[in-house]
Specification:
disordered N terminus, mainly alpha, about 0% strand, 13 helices, about 70% helix, MetI-like fold, single chain
Length: about 290
């Protein structure tokens, strides 16, 4: 009988070799890694990359098209768009990383307790999680951000809360599966405490799905943050993030298409690179399921 794995048509480019023996998939990972490193450097030390201060206005160069002097052109204030994109990467990165960390830790903790303790605690926690999962994550984040008001802290909190149910369900499933394994029963039989069993025997073997989900969720968090900023619920600062830059540029698509195009390309490149990296992390965390890819 043909197995489900063999029935799936794998992309032809995955095993394709290019000059020097480097496969196309490895090349995509290499490019994605370069993009991630570059954007990370932009977020940490934007002044090293940006040629101008993000608030500096060229009064005689308003809505100038991309050129050697201004790689991404200038906006309606005469600000250099490339410098704005570089400096805007910091808030976008903070939103994504902070939301994922909070969501993964909180959701993972809830799932771990529910799965390990079981009983009434599991029932209560998971009913709440199931209710939250009936609401689309973006809609839940939008409602929370609208209720809390626009700020960096609130947008991070909104995205983190909306991601908690997914992490909780994944971790609960892992806990229920691992706590039934023989080595856990052996540890319990020799008198190991619940805390020792949980932190020394179960959690170290349950982290890989959370890591994969967090890696991929980083891209979703950045997209959600950009969307909230685009709607005016994000960060209100002198130096806007990528979503706010998109929002500012949408009214100038005919006179200055570059104002929205380049922030949009930055978001696309960053999220695509994160997804490629997440796919690689998944292969590393689950080597058995990645065979044959």
């Amino acid at each position: 009988m043909t197995s489900e794995r063999s029935a799936v048509r794998l992309p032809k480019w995955r095993g394709t070799k290019i000059k020097g023996g480097l496969s196309a998939s490895n090349l995509s990972v290499l490019i994605a890694g370069f993009v991630l490193v570059f954007i990370t450097v932009c977020a940490i030390v934007p002044s090293w990359i940006a040629p101008y201060a993000p608030t500096f206005m060229f009064s005689d160069e308003i809505l100038v098209a991309p050129s050697l002097a201004h790689l991404f052109g200038t906006d309606y204030f005469g600000r250099d768009v490339f410098s704005l994109v570089v400096h805007g990467s910091r808030d976008s990165m903070i939103i994504g990383v902070s939301a994922v960390l909070i969501g993964a830790v909180a959701g993972g903790g809830i799932g771990a307790l529910a799965g390990y303790i079981g009983g009434i605690i599991d029932a209560i926690f998971m009913r709440v999680i199931e209710i939250l999962m009936t609401i689309p994550g973006v809609l839940l984040a939008l409602a929370i951000a609208a209720a809390l008001g626009p700020s960096l802290k609130n947008i991070v909190l909104a995205i983190a809360i909306s991601s908690i149910p997914g992490y909780a369900r994944i971790m609960r499933g892992q806990m229920i599966s691992i706590k039934k394994r023989p080595y856990v029963a052996a540890s319990r039989s020799i008198g190991a405490s619940n805390a020792r069993i949980l932190f020394w025997h179960i959690l170290p073997n349950a982290w890989s799905p959370i890591l994969v989900m967090a890696t991929i969720g980083l891209g979703s968090a950045i997209l959600t943050g950009a969307g909230l900023s685009f709607l005016g619920l994000g960060v209100i600062k002198e130096v806007p993030d990528w979503g706010a830059l998109l929002s500012q540029g949408r009214n100038y698509l005919t006179a200055g298409w570059w104002m929205a195009t380049f922030p949009g390309l930055a978001i696309t490149a960053f999220v695509l690179s994160i997804n490629i990296a997440g796919d690689k992390v998944q292969d590393f965390a689950n080597p058995k399921t990645s065979k044959g890819r």
